[in-house]
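INFO batch 0412 | record 1 of 1 | parsing
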Amino acid sequence: MLVYGRNVCLEFLEKNKKVRKLYIQEGFKDEKLISAIGKLNIEPKILPKYELDRLANGLHQGIIMDVEDFRYTDYHDFIDDPESFVVILDHLEDPHNLGAIVRTSEAAGVSGIIIPKDRSVEVNATVIKTSVGTVDNIPIDMVTNLASTIKDLKDNGFWIVGTDMNGTDYRELDYHGKIALVIGNEGSGMSRIVKESCDFIAEIPMYGKVNSLNASVASGIMIYEVIRQKRWGLERL
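INFO prediction complete | emitting tokens
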């Protein structure tokens, strides 16, 4: 898997991630990265900018690394805590949204993220760059079937909270205990079977002319309301 961008590559190098190949742009002068690269047992390949442009699907900032593919985690490894908080992404397609949600989830202390294998974005270079490398700091599981995963979460004591335009004001719900928050697809929202599996539907009120929010923005609002209640309680509403 290719990753690129100075901050992301530096974080990978500082975490001693295995680098298979390394490409840097002619005239590259980032001293911190050059120092980190010097500690590798690998000779970087120096290329003109146009060749790096062809390799990277985004702003590479003069450095691209070929690293091991992202390793997903089994969600059973992060659902034991009585206040577990899991974010489920129901077939998101935009890697920038996934990257932003990963970053927010990591910052808020979410237990883990669950994404489906089919018709969904996976953890790729764009996700890693958008998340500023935080994909390594939060467990992410890719499951075969969301509906069966939700059923299993319920069997493990989780309340499933979906997000939709027609539901209960998100501030009026109680998020104590084990919570799984479902964020729907950017265009169509939650799938029918996933929506029917939810215990509660949370709505973020719209007071302007738009009737919906970007998936990553809505996720941020919901995630921090859940965390607020878990940490400080409903009495501080």
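INFO post-check: The helical segments are 6-14, 31-38, 49-55, 95-108, 125-130, 146-155, 192-197, 215-232.
INFO record closed
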